[in-house]
Automatic annotation (TrEMBL):
It catalyses: 2 a quinone + NADPH + H(+) = 2 a 1,4-benzosemiquinone + NADP(+). This is NADPH:quinone reductase. It is an enzyme of class 1 (oxidoreductase). It comes from Solimonas terrae. Residues 1-26 are annotated as: Disordered. PROSITE patterns: QOR_ZETA_CRYSTAL (PS01162). Pfam families: ADH_N, ADH_zinc_N. GO terms for molecular function: mRNA 3'-UTR AU-rich region binding; NADPH binding; quinone reductase (NADPH) activity; zinc ion binding.
Amino acid sequence: MQTHAIGIHMHGGPEQLQWEPRELSSPGPGEVLLRHSAVGLNYIDTYHRSGLYPLSLPSGLGTEAAGQVLEVGEGVRDFRRGDRVAYASGPLGAYAEARLMPAAHLVKLPDAIDERSAAAMMLQGMTVEYLIRRSYRVQAGETVLLHAAAGGVGLIATQWLKYLGVTVIGTVGSAAKAELARAHGCDHLIDYRRENVAERVRALTGGRGVPVVYDGVGRDTFAASLDSLAPRGLLVSFGNASGAVDAFAPGLLAAKGSLYLTRPRLGDYIATREELLASAAALFEVVRAGAVRIGIGQTYALRDAAQAHRDLEARRTTGSTLLLP
């Protein structure tokens, strides 16, 4: 099967993304041949491209997509031709019109979930699921700090947290992003460009701080995140949008109130087939219930992935972004 995909041969800037022809064979044992209808753009894609998370080159790019099954390989029992499926893990290579994929990484889509919405929510939505239900299980009545509240993860997290009865303090970088986050249920907005985040958090919590901070920004927000925590609070540092956090002495956590720090990743929370299906099912449930609306902020042609990367890194995007084959 003749198709096209984005490949990289050198680490570097968005200019390294190349639109290339590919020839696909029939699926082998345990594999499925998919035709993508939409591909999700995620910040981790920029880490793979830049070399922050080094790849063995040449390589494909992308971890999330949705589409339809064209053909199944030997031993595949859970899927058949025509099934609508999505994924958010497995071998890199989602930036493609079609691809071969291990069946074990796929999830069948319910009738109520369309393929574009699935591609916009699988990675970010399952990230939110493990953040708020497993890395720290939030309880109704608690207050949390959520950085990048107008981003893809932020908008899903805010809605899900509000559904659980949680008060959300969100950080944003502009008035427009504040309005977007507020429209999705964020209770308090802090403009990190103009305000002292930790001081505002203390003021909003009667001086105590929050029990948990969800921080996908990294270097620029790390200190403020620690200073926003209540004693024995947990910093969930799950991303590096502003760069990796600098090395620090563990004694800092003790000095600031016996704090906890975790650096999780989605792959470790959906490492088994059972965990993957459970996480996806929890996400599908809140979306079908209307508690979480999946907003697609912008779309690009798949061949224009380089421009999508530029806009993402310049923080010109809001919500989820799709690449369309």
